[in-house]
Specification:
Structural class: mainly alpha
Largest sheet: none
Number of strands: 0
Helix content: over 70%
């Protein structure tokens, strides 16, 4: 029964995760917490899935399938997360040959849906702390990357360095 639950869960995730990326993390959290993971374990799953090559949803499906049902669980979870995208691509290509589709309307629809999924991901991965410093760094990093030409790598490294320095200053003051 555990394998069937995994297959159904990852098939649902696969329906929404077409295209992959970070936009799916919010839905994954909704589907996987608290059924199989607590908050901390889910964050670890995302970290592992992101650090291994391939899409996050696919890596998470394989890892959770392996943890809960071994090799068969890993294979079936992995196949279930890609089943809908493969089937829908096949159907879309077949229909595209027969029906005229306005590309601009389709593109706008996909952008809107993707934006909603990314906002869901931001909400799902928001800091669990009310520490004002975290929010200031997040807003400053957003402002620098959105409204300047500063390379995001420098923003990330700068935020990390500033946080370390502030932490050391706070430890020295105590």
């Amino acid at each position: 029964m555990e394998i069937l639950n995994l297959v159904i869960t990852f098939f649902k995730i696969g329906i929404i995760s077409f295209g992959g990326g970070w936009s799916i993390v919010g839905l994954m959290k909704h589907e996987l917490v608290p059924r199989w993971y607590d908050e901390a374990s889910f964050r670890a799953l995302i970290a592992i899935a992101q650090s291994t090559p391939g899409p996050i949803a696919l890596n998470a499906a394989t890892l959770l399938g392996w943890q809960k049902a071994g090799l068969i669980g890993a294979v079936l979870s992995t196949l279930s997360v890609v089943a809908f995208p493969v089937l829908s691509l096949t159907l879309a290509m077949t229909l595209a040959r027969r029906l005229p589709i306005r590309r601009a309307i389709a593109d706008e629809s996909l952008k809107t849906g993707s934006l909603a999924m990314m906002l869901m991901t931001l909400w799902a991965l928001r800091p669990q702390t009310a520490d004002l410093r975290v929010w200031i760094f997040a807003l400053a990093a957003f402002g620098l990357t959105a409204f300047t030409t500063v390379n995001p790598i420098w923003v990330i490294l700068g935020a990390g360095a500033a946080n370390i320095i502030l932490g050391l200053l706070g430890a020295a003051a105590s």
